Amino acid sequence: xxxxxxIKIISDYMLFKIAIKNLLGAGIRTWLNVFVTSVSxxxxxxxxxxxxxxxxxxxxxxxxxxxxxGAYWHPKYDPYDPITFEDSHSKTPQVLKSIVEDExxxxxxxxxxxxxxxxxxxxxxxxxxxxxxxxLNIPTKELIKYNGPNIPIMIGKGMAAYxxxxxxxTFTIRWMDASRTYDAAEGEIIHxxxxxxxxxxxxxxxxxxxxxxxxxxMPNESTYVVYKEGIKELHSSEDWIKRDVExxxxxxxxxxxxxxxxxxxxxxxxxxxxxxxxxxxxxLSIFRRKKEIGTLMAxxxxxxxxxxxxxxxxxxxxxxxxxxxxxxxGPILYYFNIxxxxxxxxxxDMGLIISKTLMPVYSPLLLIATAIIVFIILLIVSYIPSxxxxxxxxxxxxxxxxxL
Length: 404
Description:
Blueprint: H1 2-25, H2 28-67, E1 70-73, E2 90-91, H3 94-101, E3 105-116, E4 122-129, E5 151-156, H4 157-163, E6 170-176, E7 182-193, E8 204-208, H5 209-215, E9 221-222, E10 224-227, E11 241-243, H6 245-248, H7 250-257, H8 260-288, H9 290-298, H10 303-339, E12 341-342, E13 357-358, H11 364-386, H12 394-399
Parallel strand pairs: 4-8, 5-7
Antiparallel strand pairs: 1-10, 1-11, 2-9, 3-4, 3-6, 3-10, 6-7, 12-13
């Protein structure tokens, strides 16, 4: 039994050596197949890294500028339905008020309004926010410095471009207060922020919370409360609804995931090109090496071993392609991972949270999974044409007859 195992190991080793010799003997054909396969692997990893980078950036920006650890909403509040803003406010529950006083949360009061810059009317969402806060990465403290007669306003870079407003511009703001009475006052642009988050930028103006409560006749009221990370779930928050991070970033995930089918189609095309190259190479190799196959079988090599030889050659193609990807394209992937990919346009104007320099993210799982999938696919497409060898007659093969 031990002797048989030793003979089998020697046989497998010889088979491996023959496979390497045949692979290298094919010359430029082998290296072209390996290069095409490595390009496919590189593009799959690169594309997947871009999507992962987009997702991570969108999540980080949303959490940094809008969500933090989560929020408690007034039960009637719907950020996508401005009509609800009239009724989605009430006195902040005491349990939430206590963490606000401990500087572990901030209050936001939301209402509809309209601004009239240069004789134009622009509907906006007016948000009063706690100014002295460090929970969200937005420069609310800039409004504290203002001591003029107008309502101090902070807007985003996108809103400034859309409404053609600049720092120091003044205009009329009109709103409806708690008693359903319209009122108006002059507002002044004190700061223009570059948050990178269109959801707190386009169509928004930010003012001090105390001023918002005063002009809307809503003392001690708010629409939602944002709390910092690490705060445990609060009880007795009346009927206010807790919204965790997972809930608040669902729209970002949906935007990116809706383009996943296009990416998957690209992966399939790239894998098909790589598989086609290996399949054609194996079919041509079998056709050209009929006499060699017949000789091996005539010398006593089992048909299954010959099939294994050709399948092994395909597997070595995949291994060489993975190695070439690491050597040839690994530095490129590393460079993009460190320095990012400059994008030609600002996608924030399209309603996407995408950085001007996209930072791809290549997880170990992505790299390992891509390598394994490519290896398995190439192993399969190498085996399929090799099965034809099992139907060959050694005598016909030596004579050079066509393989059936």
